[in-house]
């Protein structure tokens, strides 16, 4: 270079391009962050539950989300399955739905499996996150039935006294302190069988 003798101090400008190629595996993994609540709580026997937008996504900057196919599922668990009539599922859009088993209650940890497939290469990656579900117990009312073969109870006037009360056995049957179910998978008293049942007899005078 230099400008002596009428020389030019700078050369001509030459142009070239640089292409930065994103690693396919990394592109799939950081396509978005999965965000969902850390815990849920539902009462026993609350029926089918639906949580719209349970899973939300934060798309990574600079990545076209249309190049990644994403699916979610709740990882099956043999013990946890005993608490559900409908196993939890995640629909497109992030809606969580499930139905708990009748009279079941307890604390569970469930795992969300996210699977990403790169639509250009077919490469797949997956990741796990978890949340807790607390199915809180609800005290079920006791129940019983009258034994039709023992009702009505007929006694003669003066036959029953405070000193010599009459005994009518087997009048009440199918006496349950709560729900008619067996114990839960962890030995929980789902049927509330430890509760004590008492009865109050209300008299109604017959008019002849």
List the helices and strands and how they pair.
Layout: H1 24-29, E1 32-35, E2 39-43, E3 48-51, E4 56-59, E5 68-74, H2 78-81, E6 84-90, E7 96-100, E8 106-118, E9 124-136, E10 143-146, E11 172-176
Parallel strand pairs: 2-9
Antiparallel strand pairs: 1-4, 3-7, 5-8, 6-7, 8-9, 10-11
Main beta sheet strand tally, sense and closure: 4 strands, mixed
Q: What is the helical fraction, as a range of percent?
A: under 10%
- The amount of beta strand, in percent, is 25-35%
Query: Mean pLDDT score, rounded?
Result: 80
Low-confidence stretches: 22-31
Please count the helical segments: 2
Question: N-to-C terminal Cα separation, in Å?
Answer: 132 Å
Number of strands: 11
Q: Using only CA atoms, what is the Rg?
A: 35 Å
Describe this protein's structure.
The protein has helices spanning 24-29, 78-81, and strands spanning 32-35, 39-43, 48-51, 56-59, 68-74, 84-90, 96-100, 106-118, 124-136, 143-146, 172-176. With 208 residues, the protein is mainly beta. The chain is built from two helices and eleven strands, in the order αβββββαββββββ. Residues 22-31 have low confidence and may be disordered.
